[in-house]
Amino acid sequence: MNITADCVVIGSGMGGGMTALALARRGLDVLLVERGERLRREPQNWSPEAVFLKRRYKPAETWLDGRGREYKPGVHYVVGGSTKVYGASLPRFRESDFEATEHDDGLSPAWPFRYADLEPYYAAAEAQLNVHGTTGQDPTEPWRSGPYPFPAMEHEPYVADLAERLRAQGVSPAANAMGVDLRPGGLCIRCGTCDGFPCLLGAKSDAETCAVDPALATGNLRLLTGVRIDRLETDPSGARVVAAVGVGDEGEVRITAAKFVVSAGAVNSAALLLRSADGKHPAGLANSSGRVGRNYMMHNNAHIAAFDATRRNDVVFQKTLSVNDWYHDGGDGKPGGVMQLVGKVQGSMMRLEAPYAPRFALDGFAARSVEWLVMSEDLPSPDNRVTLDASGRIVTQRTALGVAAHRRTMRTAKRLLHRVGYQIIGTQWFGIEMNSHMCGTVVAGEDPSRSVLDGHCRAHDVENLWVIDGGFFPSSAAMNPALTIAAQALRVVAESDLAA
Ligand SMILES: Cc1cc2nc3c(=O)[nH]c(=O)nc-3n(C[C@H](O)[C@H](O)[C@H](O)COP(=O)(O)OP(=O)(O)OC[C@H]3O[C@@H](n4cnc5c(N)ncnc54)[C@H](O)[C@@H]3O)c2cc1C
C-alpha cells in the first residue's frame, strides 16, 4: 500500500494526538498512523480482573532489561496510547523544572525553553483536556495567565477529612488538576474505575477523546490504524526523510510525506530512530550526537497503602488531592518529591502483590486503606538507555538516579501518614516494568552535539523530522508528564516550521 500526505504523525498518544489535532486545525492534510486499533468500549473496561490481572489492554510484547531478563512493559498500543488508561492527573511542571537544579545525586539540566515560553500552551492544553483545578492551595504552584478551565473536583467526605488531618500537621493538601468531563452536562459519573482503567463512557480526557476525534472532525485528518512503522528512509543526502515504511494486516505500507512526526512514546520513538540507521546515519537516524536512546527516565515512583483499622474508606473517586510541600526542598534544601492520591484500590487489585492472601482479607484491608503515589525526579544519565538487541528487540537499561531524594520523601510521607492516624503502611516500589512515565530518550537541547532535537522538537540532523512525545524531556521533573507533552505539541505546531 502506498499513501501520501502533507504530514505524517506516527503514534496517536498524547504527543501524536495533540500534534495531529493542532496540524489538522491549521488545514494541513495529516495522516495519523497508529499500530493499534481503537480500544473497544465493553464491560471489561471497568473490570479489575480483566484490566490488572489479565492485562487485557496491554500487548503480549516483552522487552529486555540491562541483564537480558524479559519483562512486560507498561505500554498500550491503541488509539490514544497510554492515555486510554492513565489517571488523568494533569499538573503543570514548576518554573524550576525548566532551569538547571542541583539535586542530591547530581544536576537536573535546564530545558532549551522556559516555563514562560510554554505557559500559553499549558493554558490551551488545559482547555482542550477539560482540566479541573484551583489555585491558592499549593505553595509550589507556578504562575498562570488565567484560571483553570473548570473548578477543582470536590473531595468526597473521607478525602476532605484526610485533608483537614494533613493540614493540622502543617502541610498544604491541594486539589489535583484533573482531566475528566465534569463540565455542566458532562459525561463523568465520578466512578471508581478511572485511574488505570479505560473509560467506558468516554468521560476521561484521553488523547483519543480530546485530540484524535476532534482532529477527525476537522475533515483534515486520516487515521490509519493497525499499521506499525518499522523504519524511516532518507534521501541520498541523508538530510530529509522521504518515507515511513511499516507493516499492516495486508502487508507492507509505504507512506511518503513532506514532513514526519514521530510520537511513538519515548522508548518506541528511540527504537524507531535506531532501526532507521542507514549509510548516512550509521548509528541511527538523527543520532550524530549519539544521544538517541540515552537519558531514559521514568520517575522514581512507589505506591503507599495506608491502613487505619478505625476508619472505613468508602470513597469512590479518590484521586482528588496531593501534597507537594517537599517539591523544592525535601528537608536538606534539595528537591524532594510529591505524594498524590491514586484511584481507590480494590481488594482484587491487591492480588498481584499478595497472591496467596484470601480475598476477604484483601477486601477488608482495602475497605480501610487509602492509597498514594509518591513520585520523585529521576535524573538523566547517558548509561540509562534504550538499545536494540541483535534481533531488533527493545532493551532498556536503567539504574535509577535520584534515589536518595526518593527514599527521604518516602520516609517523610510515611511519618506524616502515621501522625494522621494510619497504623499500617505498605509500600510497593516501581520496577522497570512500571514505566508509565517514560521520557528523555531523544532529548531536546540547544547543542547538537549533546541533544537530538532542538527546542521545538525538530531533529538537529534531519530537516523534516520532529519527535513529539515524552522522549524530548531533558529532565523528568517530579510531576505527571502528559500535560507538558500536550502543551509542547501545541507549541511546536504554533511556532515551528512544522505547520508552514
Ligand atoms: C496506568 C497509567 C497511568 C498514568 N497516569 C498518568 C496521569 O495521571 N497523568 C499523567 O500526566 N500521565 C499519566 N500516565 C502517563 C501518560 O499516559 C504518558 O505520559 C503519555 O501517554 C505519554 O504520551 P506519548 O505520546 O509520549 O506516548 P503514548 O501515549 O504511549 O503514545 C504512543 C503511541 O504510539 C503508538 N506506537 C508505538 N510505536 C509505534 C509504531 N512503531 N508505529 C505506529 N504507532 C506506534 C502506540 O500504540 C501509542 O498509541 C499514566 C500512564 C499509565 C500507563
Automatic annotation (TrEMBL):
Record's keyword annotation contains Oxidoreductase: yes
Coiled-coil residue windows: none
InterPro entries for the chain: FAD-dep_OxRdtase_2_FAD-bd, FAD/NAD-bd_sf, GMC_OxRdtase_N, GMC_OxRtase_C, MIP_CS, P2Ox-like
Gene3D superfamilies linked: FAD/NAD(P)-binding domain
All residue ranges annotated as the Glucose-methanol-choline oxidoreductase N-terminal domain in the record: 78-299
Record's keyword terms, sorted: FAD, Flavoprotein, Oxidoreductase
Protein name (database record): GMC family oxidoreductase
